[in-house]
Amino acid sequence: xxxxxxxxxxxxxxxxxxxxxxxxxxxxxxxxxxxxxxxxxxxxxxxxxxxxxxxxxxxxxxxxxxxxxxxxxxxxxxxxxxxxxxxxxxxxxxxxxxxxxxxxxxxxxxxxxxxxxxxxxxxxxxxxxxxxxxxxxxxxxxxxxxxxxxxxxxxxxxxxxxxxxxxxxxxxxxxxxxxxxxxxxxxxxxxxxxxxxxxxxxxxxxxxxxxxxxxxxxxxxxxxxxxxxxxxxxxxxxxxxxxxxxxxxxxxxxxxxxxxxxxxxxxxxxxxxxxxxxxxxxxxxxxxxxxxxxxxxxxxxxxxxxxxxxxxxxxxxxxxxxxxxxxxxxxxxxxxxxxxxxxxxxxxxxxxxxxxxxxxxxxxxxxxxxxxxxxxxxxxxxxxxxxxxxxxxxxxxxxxxxxxxxxxxxxxxxxxxxxxxxxxxxxxxxxxxxxxxxxxxxxxxxxxxxxxxxxx
Length: 456
Fold this sequence. Notes:
two-stranded antiparallel ribbon, 3 helices, mainly beta
């Protein structure tokens, strides 16, 4: 049995987690871990792709003028709780291990007089069991210490269909997103102008400058170039995205990200989703990325490179069962890098992302939503990925072939006293030829409590 280190226990947070079911009024499910990374929709028609949610969040409308009373009447306050256990046994014998309790206090002010809105999030992560000799879970600081940070402080100004978004905020774009797979998400500090899908269902865009990022295991923001491994510079990232949806079933999206002296990344994806009948649905998508060093080429110590990926994905569902196949090919010049969010490749998995130079990877996945069997809220996802032909981006030496099997079980309580509670169990096994096997286990409990909501 695991022995809990007393000095790391935060009794108040554990007690609060236990008391919330008794206090809960209006509960909402928290978006734990990007569902793009572990998709198990009841229909392929709902399969997430890169640009599905790449627009600005919708803010509540204030009920009247811009005075303080109306501003407060349009605001909401939520407490998002997460309990996370992470254990990875690496092939070399090391073992990143952590068990932590975290929370996010989220405050939103709706659009006051149709012009101003704001979102603020104060986030914490505290150790429950975090041995000093088993660092690396990324649930806590690198030394297994607490995290306390204002991860979002985001004032917005609305001008017709367009939104100016300032300071610390969340993004949900290919290569630039929250990548919510630990206790706290990635958040970025930047300044953008955008038009979201809530304002225009056919065209959406986002342009701006991102100067820094807060990583999983830190309460501080660092420059985008520093996050990419270039410590001698303090450069930010320029972004421009455009999404076009001429019909409901078809989405075409492009994005470009430029960081001076680091690299430029261009991404394209198109997805077509349609319901073939009441029980059958289909989703087909194609992606392409081009990534190349720019300026002083500092990522690989002054060596210029140009790499990229292309991929294809097909998912077919019948009733509540979904079958997915995918393929990705990485160009041989260098690895495809993604320090500012999740890897967008279709074969990216829990432990590895199959993003090495020259790597070809194949995915076979299956998912089932058990609601048709009377088990509301229960869903299972299983996937297998195989990668081969990779080479080291510097030495050009062949790297071991590898394969990974991932299993995810989700259970959402949809009604009753514990409505809104979400439990997720995950396991992964990564085998590298001639190297060994890595095992990964995760247990996550999410619960959201609405302290107050907008006055109707």
